[in-house]
Amino acid sequence: MSSCSNSLCAGSELSCSVTHTLSMLDSAAELMMVHTDFQAAFETCERGLHSLASTEQEDSNRCAEFKAGFCILGIQALAELNQWQGVLSWVLQQYEQQERIPAKIMQMCILLYSKVGEPAVMQDAARVWLHCPSNGGVTGFATVAELYLLHVLVPLGHKDEAVGLIVGEVGSGAFTEDQRQIALDVVEEKEREKQEQTLNPRSSPNPETTAQTVSTKGVVIRKLEAMLRFFYRNLLLTRSGSFSLRSVFLAVVLLYMLFLRLDPGRIKRYL
């Protein structure tokens, strides 16, 4: 899908375009969080992305934010529809090249494929993204590096590449010296755990403890979902047309999806 044009347009037309795009993004979030109509939410995201690609936009930064918002909601919708296999290819349709994917989208994809037990799907894309010079200074670079290390390389048992990432150019740009040492310790610890489990399969985690942890996380997520739906319904009842209020709600939704829905354990950082 082609990127947004930088051509100038009249102020009124620009305002109308922004309002329409924000309305579609708002609608997709409502379908996702309030109505849990994931198919309709995804289709709305598709229409929004098509509209962005075919409409001239003066503010390229705002256009990029809208595009990322539609993609994040679209990814979550596909995951809820159990169509996660096509997420990466769908994202690449929007951005065309792996290194052009925004950091927050890359983070979300890594977490998604890690959660479904297919971290290898993201190995090539994340490696290309991290070694692209233009991505070294973007916000979120360190988080992508951390997620790639902990959710792709370590689970796959790629110790040499993990160590190379930490001590190499990517690690130097992403982590402090102390963080690099902690990361090396984590890699060594995971390697020891893997060897111990191979030698002693009975040392696996207690199923009851694991079930209790999953149950607790599920309760937290359900409470957060209820709070978000309550907040959104109140926005609808007040018929607030405020961009700021709706933008705040959407930001909360995106953070919830990225940090809790896909990976509840993300709150406790390793680095």
TrEMBL record:
Query: What cellular-component terms does GO give this entry?
Result: peroxisomal membrane
Extract the ranges annotated as region (Disordered). Answer: 193-212
Q: Where is the composition biased (Polar residues)?
A: 198-212
The source's domain of life comes to: Eukaryota
* GO biological process annotation, one example: protein import into peroxisome matrix
**InterPro entries from the UniProt entry:** Pex26 (IPR010797)
Q: Which UniProt keywords apply?
A: Membrane, Transmembrane, Transmembrane helix
GO MF annotation: an example: ATPase binding
Give TM regions. 243-262
Q: What is this protein called?
A: Peroxisome assembly protein 26 Peroxin-26
What species is given as this protein's source?
Answer: Larimichthys crocea (Large yellow croaker)
